[in-house]
Amino acid sequence: MNTIKTEDKIEIKPGYKKTSIGIIPEDWEVKKLISQAYVDKENINSDFENEFINYVSLSDIKNGKILPKKIQFKSAPSRAKRITKKGDVLLATVRPNLKNFAIVDKENIIASTGFAVLGYKKMDLVYLYNFLYSHFAEKQYFALTVGSNYPALNSNDVKNLKIPIPPLPEQKAIADCLSTWDKGIAKLSALIASKKEQKKGLMQGLFSGKLKVENGELVKVEDEKLWLKGWKEIKLKKTAKFLRGKGLSKGAVIQNGKNKCILYGELYTKYNEIISKIYSRTDSTDGLPSKKYDILIPSSTTTSGIDLITASCVLENNVLLGGDLIVMRPDLNKINAKFFVYLFSNSLHKLILRYTQGVTIIHLYGKDLKEVKLNLPSIEEQAAIAEVLITADKEIELLEKKLEAFKIQKKGLMQVLLTGERRLV
């Protein structure tokens, strides 16, 4: 196909043109947002009489979904001003690069003045909503907020955003196509949330003895007297040795180091899943060499991070364990490490937190953990419980990978549809 070379060496295919926002089809136009949609058309005034409102602040949008709070209007913050209609688009004007946008899916929603409310005038609002996530829009947000200590768009910024405008039938076709992907993403997200709730129920049942694993099958225990039959109380010091990681700073971590390692801080990021699978790398030989099934617990955190204290299980030998880690080296004849990690995240977590010390910085000491008492079933039952929960985690993990693939595919579709690289009409 022949192309035209412009002065700045950008190649333009026949049927396309260069514009102020980029290359688009010749039959598309570039117009300011205000010419295509209303911006903050209606705000609350002194005549407003509702006793209660469904209020949406900037923190009430999660992954494009609106989670309004019902509050008394007289107690509402002064920011509760924007009157919306179902189908309107909310554009978060504070840090727009975070792309905290949503389509209003209910009537009687009052939005914070931290949003611009975009209402129907000429263009398809679902198309407009998807445009807000596009590279075309992103470049404009960046240009308007770069260098600002408080990056935000004002009303005129929003009104003057430049938008590529396809013919209306094509706008609707693009909107319908992307909405189909959104529905698939929403359905899969709901399924993942449901599976996680099911897993919580499984854990509660298994760790209370109300559920048993018999011959690989879950069995409900109806008789309350039999719930914890066979479980024995034991102190942690009788189930494991307590060690401590050592050495290793953040500076010791390098991309292609010859040794695997785990640092304290990573337990809050990569390692906050039930079983650790991914390790950092270092050329250092500092650190405590792990043994397979070592259990790791962070020994300090800030007050705000206390609920994030978790346990992880190392799945191989000779991973170097850095400082500020409590290392439980279990007697595998008494305690199944994977079972313990699940138990920790369920019923044991609150008990462990009772042993923390400090005000701003919270500390946890191995000498205190040694005295923690817990109920344990037989080692065989521990292994069976762990296997049930690992299976549940694997199912969730597969669904999450599928969800991520959906999101990547939608992003690719947006790139070709919102630039006109692929035409639907």
Task: Provide a descriptive summary of the structure in words.
The chain has helices spanning 125-131, 135-145, 155-159, 168-208, 337-353, 366-369, 379-417; strands at 4-5, 11-12, 16-18, 23-25, 29-32, 37-39, 52-56, 61-62, 65-66, 69-72, 80-83, 89-92, 101-103, 109-112, 115-120, 162-165, 211-214, 217-220, 232-235, 240-244, 259-262, 280-282, 288-289, 295-298, 300-302, 312-313, 320-321, 325-330, 361-363, 373-376. With 425 residues, it is of the alpha+beta class. The chain has three domains: 4-165, Adenine-n6-DNA-methyltransferase TaqI, Chain A, domain 2, CATH 3.90.220.20; 166-218 and 377-425, Bipartite methylase S protein (Helix Hairpins), CATH 1.10.287; 232-376, DNA methylase specificity domains (Adenine-n6-DNA-methyltransferase TaqI, Chain A, domain 2). The strands form eleven sheets. The protein has a four-stranded antiparallel β-sheet. Strands 10-7-14-11 form a four-stranded mixed β-sheet, with no helix packed on it. Helix 1 crosses helix 4, helix 4 packs across helix 5 (337-353) and helix 4 runs antiparallel to helix 7 (379-417). The longest helix has 41 residues, at 168-208. It is elongated and about 75 Å long. The two termini are 21 Å apart.
Give the strand line-up of the largest sheet. Answer: 6-15-12-13
What's the overall average pLDDT, rounded?
A: 90
Count of all domains: 3
Rounded to the nearest angstrom, the distance between the terminal CA atoms is 21 Å
* Structure class: alpha+beta
- What is the class of the largest domain in the CATH system? Alpha Beta
- Determine the CATH topology of the largest domain: Adenine-n6-DNA-methyltransferase TaqI, Chain A, domain 2
For the record, what is the CATH homologous superfamily label of the largest domain? DNA methylase specificity domains
Residues in helices, as a percent range: 25-40%
Count up the helices.
7
Question: Uncertain spans, ≥5 residues at pLDDT below 50?
Answer: none
* Proportion of residues in β-strands: 15-25%
C-alpha geometry: elongated
Q: Output the radius of gyration.
A: 28 Å
Sheet with the most strands, sense and barrel status: 4 strands, antiparallel
CATH architecture annotation of the largest domain: Alpha-Beta Complex
For the secondary structure, the number of strands is 30
